[in-house]
Amino acid sequence: MARAHGKAGTRLLPNIVDDVATEEPDRILYEYPSSSDLRGPWTKISARQYANSVNRAARWIEDTLGGRGQGFPRLGYSGPPDLRYYILVVAAVKAGYVMLYNSLRNSAEGDAAVIEAAGCKTWLVPSRGSHIHRVVELGRVALELVDLPDLDFFVDATPVPHYPYTKTWEEARRDPVWVLHTSGSTGHPKPVVRYLDSIAFAEANTLLRPVDGRPLLLHDIWGTRVFSGFPCFHAAGLNNGTLWPLVHGGTIIFGPALAMVTADVVVEVLQTARPAAMYVPPSLLEDIAKDDKSLALLDSLDAVGYAGGPLNHDTGVRITQHTVLRQGIGTTETGWLPAVETDPEDWHYTHVHPDTGNQFQDRGNNLYELVAVRSPALEKWQPIFSTFPELDTYPFRDLFSPHPTKPGLYKYEGRIDNIIVLSNGEKVQPQETELIIATHPLVSDAIVVGQGRFQVALLLQPEEKALDAVQKDEVAYIDRIWPFVEKANALAPAHAQIHREFVVVGTPSKPFVKTGKGTVRRGPTVELYKNELDAVYAQTDAETGARAGYGAHGLLPAIDFSSAESLRRTLLNVLLSLSEAQSIGDQDDLFTVLGLDSLLVLALQRHIVRGLPRLPDGRPAINVPASVIYRNPTLAQLHHSLWAAYEAQASGQGSRSDAESRGADTEHDSTAASLLQRYPRDMPHLDDGPKPSGAAAVDCKGPRSETGYVVVLTGSTGGLGSYVLNELAQSTAVREIWCLNRAADGGASRQHELQAQRGAPPEFASKKNIHFHHATLARPRLGLPTDIYAYLRDNVTHVVHTQWQVDFNLSVASFEPHIQGVRNLIDLCAAAPIHNKRSRPRLIFTSSVGVANKFDTAGGAATVPEASITDLSVAGQGYGESKLVAELLLTAAAEKCGIPVTICRVGQISGPLKKANKKGIWNEKEWFPSIIRFSAHAKIVPASLGRNEVVDWIPVDYLAEILLELAEITGAKPASESPKVGDRPTIVHAVHPRPVRWSDALLPTVRARFASKLGRVDVVSLQTWVATLTKAATDGTGDKDEATLFALRLVQFLSHLSDEGKARPLFSTAESEKRSTTLRNLALTGADAMQTWLEQWGL
């Protein structure tokens, strides 16, 4: 157990050594094998002998270097992993020097960079185990090389005179104690200086209180006989090897001095030295867990700790079947970050001690960055500000995700630096995939790459025992490890999955570049294999994919255009191979049944093009853009479209037919009409409804109480929905809020993150009786438990429906589950009883201005009226059509069922502007932020926004307020009587009633701000701007700026904007303004708003 010294937090390291030697002279601090044969005797070093060794070394330094050091000259050293590291580090401080320890795994160039940056002029050279001479041969640094005596010289038990150290705390606290260096994962390593006060602060950890009865995390490791598998030059090795014996009462056990620590070495140490605990890098645990006999040896240990990187989850679970597993987290700059013991099953979670000032700050997507925030009262537990005294906050750049049910626990998810951004803007966290694949017995290391590419790739380093097999048959080697890749793919989102043609196997002549702790240095390793990776990507042409495609089950079958039946058969086989489905019907929707997404659509499109016969000039016989698949979302439609286009070309009816023109254009109206015909069937007519059941197993205040509204909100974790929840939670008129979301926990965990991120007070959830439930709106009773559904039926007063998939590529048929969800919400409202002349629940639907995409060609009206639209062709495309079908379905509900319905057609939603929502941000992946970010990157701004030149946007936080006013939840009072049969729904428009133009109201602000921050910025035509973006998309380089990647996702949409001849229709707001004070008084969109959004994006 940790021992708290009376002066903990203010003791200087040399004094700690002398104190321990005086107070506990015979306690054993270190043990190491006396020879390479671990079965022989082991040498034990007591506190007295260690202090004596330090005194001898200090005197040797002074005598050898001609006196005490002035200004703490750097003494460099790298050598065998023995006790000299721990002796020299204290001796150098006593003699006025400071040790610089370089990793033995550095390249010569990396060593030279650290030595040069640290200002080191003298290097201590052991008789063996050093490679400093290769650094000298580079000629970059001038070093005086000094021969260092062997370990036996320093640990000689013959007493030597005490070497005095007389500095006080205030005199010496800012003296350097050692210099290590960063791992250099993305470039050359850089020196990191630690100071004596930071080591004293590490001792202060013994003063930290238990939290809820739980001790500090490593309490069962650091005070025991513990084998340390970390290199002595590594921060964990040096910190633990120095402090655990001196401060915590432990004994550090070394492995053989001239052997690299491998799983075999660990096994031999466990068998011979019999330590009580072990603290090692995760790579060693991965190797040990691959062998059952080695794993069984862990039964003898009280605990096993690891640090320096993540551990594969399955490996961790196997280890916990044998012993307690502890995950330590620390950095070179600060040492160990104090954490609290967790439950055994939560070994992979960290509970940061609350008295350290370390916080988890929201970075979006359920990820939190660990950040140290300076607090003078916590100085003793914030050694990071000893290393960086000029800072008040220090972001560690490590990302974590919260435990789903246990507050305060966070799981490590990887470095911010390691997140891969694909060319379509999707982000990939590679850690879990890499860990799973690296657990294969034939894989040493695995790296996922793909920054700025359209697809991730896998870079493998085989285990040494697999090298011969790889050389003989690389394909067979990939076959053997592929089940582990499939296992990783099953846990990864589609855009992060590894496709078989994107695998590169490393060679023995180019081993992966490693850090001192044995982890891969990602940047240098990727650079090492740049040519091989470029070749893999080059073989898959960006437009047509010249390489054979792979799906979920391996190589995709070829597409056969020899006959209509062969095309249908091979299309079916390809679709099944791309998905996990066992079968698919001709009329099944590819997106809802097979789960096709944008990445799989791209793969399918490329594979179709690969199978096409070629024209004499080498081009595919027909043009098949990805939109063909979106517009023909069933096997039957896609087959018909492709064959009709191909047959037309083959018969000479066109030189190169476009499959899109032969597709399902004429079927869109009929599909929408079919949906509109089916879903109003059996809709109940107005009656008194069922009596309230009163049997709901939910704590409530009785059916349809007059004391407050009971509101159902769908999509509360969405961009608009989260702000609607804010407004509902703050409304005194609302008694209960029921949030229905697709997430397994009903969105509860995600909601708390979003509310804090978007400016809600942290106590928002306690203001109201807020419930979260998993719901599938397309299922009967919304997929809710019977008692919950019954309670909502009997008590709900308002349903606010914001949940809808936003994908402008999909056809209307793919939105059928959403339309089914609208019908099911209608059934809920229609079944609700009527109390005290109150109407049935009001159903508020957030529709879209997209229902009138083609209104300007459908009758010539000046503005779209606040009235029903019955012409399905006005919507023009799938998303808008689906919203229009839903509108007409709700119109029928109002007329037949007497349900009060409010349809709110929402226009462009902009970023938040209220001061209370200062933490909110306009999503940078949307079209307008993408334009602005790329404009800053390219230093050009479009003079016009084309079809979107008119700015009638509403900020999302104001829109939420407007929506509730229009829904009669806030503002206007509800009707006193139920609607009558035949009543029409209330249709309102949520667009700015006083629109402005981009070029007049916003462009000047953007141009002025960019000019002041970036220098010259040119205003160009929209066509020129889009052309510049398109060029950036096809420049052939993989490493693209993130602003470019966001914009590239929308390049087709942005190209359509440049069609300036087709302006968007304008929408009337006369009736809407009467119903909403907020809408009526909405401020003009101008310079202030634009400045706020620019600040949100950090521009």
UniProtKB/TrEMBL annotation:
PROSITE patterns (alphabetical): AMP_BINDING
Source organism superkingdom: Eukaryota
Keywords: NADP, Phosphopantetheine, Phosphoprotein
Transmembrane segments: none
Region (Disordered): 681-700
The keyword NADP is annotated on this UniProt entry: yes
Pfam families: AMP-binding, AMP-binding_C_3, NAD_binding_4
Start and end residues of each Polyketide synthase-like phosphopantetheine-binding domain: 565-646
Gene Ontology MF term list: phosphopantetheine binding
Compositionally skewed regions (Basic and acidic residues) per UniProt: 681-690
PANTHER family named in the record: ENZYME, PUTATIVE (JCVI)-RELATED, PHENYLACETATE-COENZYME A LIGASE
Protein name as annotated: Male sterility, NAD-binding protein
Top-level taxonomy: Eukaryota, Fungi, Dikarya, Ascomycota, Pezizomycotina
